[in-house]
Design goal:
About 45% of the residues lie in helices and about 10% in strands. With about 260 residues, the chain is mainly alpha-helical.
């Protein structure tokens, strides 16, 4: 199990863990000893084994270990013994949306998001220190990008509209052990300023206007730190873009060889 700030997340991706249980089902595995080669380990006490079992058990809720035995959870059964494609998609959705951090990221970012927005949103959700964020944001984004394919509502659109993210909560025993409802929060619309609510005081915000650009930022230290992180990324991209542009040659004699 890994942590960032106040939040926990799995070390291994949804797809990798689903492959593990699909292969366990194919080989009819019921013991940890027989499961180890599938996980790529020989020693059951290896740290990697514990992290993979934690990802499948605590986070994705598809596998349980009891002593030397392993078994699929009711949710895992729905995934590996599915009778129709739609049933598997729904079960995968219920599994991955049970990871609170992925669910909250999806509520804020959706499926199609600006990569520059990821770190500020992640910091806002976790309360992580900038140094910790810099070391883990990339790995978490990879996990999130993998999870997005399962967080799309089965049979629904993925175009980023707020109304296509809702889904019923999981049903059946064992699917929601201590976890929140799998209904995904509606993503906040991005790009474009929204008018302040009638009871919102403009003095609580910094505002900047230049040409066609308008920015409104809350006077909040956490928010401002997130904006600072984002702007630094934009500046870096802008600097790299300038360096990649070919320089125009000034007038003068042609280079050696007669080429111009």
């Amino acid at each position: 199990m890994a942590t960032l700030g106040s939040r926990e997340y799995p070390e291994y991706s949804s797809t990798q863990c689903l492959r593990y249980i699909d292969e366990a089902k194919r080989q009819k595995i019921t013991t940890l000893a027989a499961f180890l080669p599938i996980l790529g380990h020989k020693n059951p006490n290896s740290g990697g084994v514990g992290l993979k079992l934690s990802s499948m058990g605590k986070f994705y809720r598809v596998l349980e270990k009891e002593g030397k035995s392993i078994r699929f959870t009711p949710l895992g059964d729905k995934i590996v013994f599915n009778l129709a494609k739609g049933d598997r998609e729904r079960a995968c959705f219920d599994s991955v949306s049970g990871v609170a951090l992925f669910k909250d990221l999806y509520g804020r970012l959706g499926a199609d998001y600006n990569p520059q927005d990821f770190a500020p949103v992640l910091q806002d959700l976790t309360g992580a220190k900038p140094a910790d964020l810099e070391g883990k944001a990339g790995d978490i984004e990879k996990l999130y990008r993998d999870a997005v394919q399962y967080l799309r509502v089965p049979g629904g659109s993925t175009g980023g509209g707020p109304d296509d993210r809702r889904a019923p909560t999981p049903s059946g025993p064992g699917d929601d052990r201590g976890h929140e409802s799998s209904e995904l929060p509606r993503p906040r619309p991005g790009g474009g300023a929204r008018p302040l609510a009638q009871d919102d005081d403009p003095r609580n915000y910094h505002e900047y206007t230049s040409g066609g650009t308008f920015v409104r930022v809350a006077k909040d230290a956490k928010v401002l730190r997130g904006i600072e992180w984002m702007v630094k990324g934009w500046l870096k991209d802008a600097s790299n873009s300038r360096e990649r542009k070919p320089r125009k040659r000034t007038s003068g004699p042609p280079p050696v060889g007669g080429q111009s």
